Structure formats: C-alpha cells, structure tokens
Amino acid sequence: MTATSHPTVRDRTLWTREDLGKIEAIMLDVTSGRIAYVVLSFGGFLGMGKKLFALPWGALTLDAVEKRFILDASKERLENADGFDKALYGP
Q1: What is the pLDDT of residues 24-52, one digit of tens each?
Q2: Partner residues linked to 34 by β-bridges
Q3: Which secondary structure element, helix H or strand E, spans residue 56, and what is its range?
Q4: Are 24 and 52 a contacting pair, CB within 8 Å?
Q5: What is the distance between the alpha carbons of residues 40 and 14, in angstroms, rounded to a whole number?
Q6: Are 27 and 2 contacting, i.e. CB atoms less than 8 angstroms apart?
Q7: For burial by CB atoms within 10 Å, which of 17, 32, 57, 75 has the most?
Q8: In sequence order, what are the beta bridge partners of 40?
Q9: Which residues 6+ apart lie within 8 Å of 69 measured at CB?
Q10: Is 40 exposed, middle or buried (0-12, 13-18, 19+ CB in 10 A)?
C-alpha cells in the first residue's frame, strides 16, 4: 500500500451537513492500481485527541460543484467510534 496526501479536489474536508474532518491520506493498492481506502482525521485540538479512521473509497461521494467529498455519517457516530493509531499506516 502506498499513501498519497494530495487529493485532486480543492477541499479535503469531508462533509455531511457539517465539517467531519480532513482526508490525511489516500491509500493506494499498488498491485491493482486502485484506491484502497482514505484516512480521515477527526476531532482533536492542536494535534491532541485526534482520531484516525480508515474509510472505504466507496463510502465517499464527490461533490464536483463544490469540489469536496461527502461522507454519509454524523459527528456523533465518529465521536463514539474507535479510531486507529497513525503508526499503523505510515506517514
């Protein structure tokens, strides 16, 4: 797996009706040449308390007009979910 942190959209913020966080990386499966998943950073303040989530690429919808991704999830759902350790994915 290879990570890239430069999506081609202007705004890396994930939205429903509110800001859900930032796409930290897009993980590529170099064998198939396909996007495996994205890494979402959610919450925290000044780098403390931030949660990371691996989201399947298919869970995101591109809003081409606003040049952003949409995720069908609530802040409450992410607040109550377990994230993962950054050391597990690399950069």
Answers
A1: 888 899 999 999 999 888 877 766 668 88
A2: 29
A3: strand 51-56
A4: yes
A5: 8
A6: yes
A7: 75
A8: 23, 53
A9: 7, 9, 12, 13, 14, 15, 23, 60, 61, 62, 63
A10: buried
Residue 48 is predicted with a pLDDT of 67
User: What homologous superfamily is domain 2-88 in, according to CATH?
Assistant: PRC-barrel domain (2.30.30.240)
Which residue ranges make up each domain of the chain?
A: 2-88
With a cut of 90, say whether residue 86 has pLDDT above it.
Answer: no
* Separation between Cα atoms, residue 39 and residue 52, nearest integer Å: 6
Positive or negative CA dihedral for 66, 39, 58, 30? Answer: positive
- The structure's pTM equals 0.70
Q: What is the dihedral of CA 60, 63, 66, 67, to 10 degrees?
A: 60
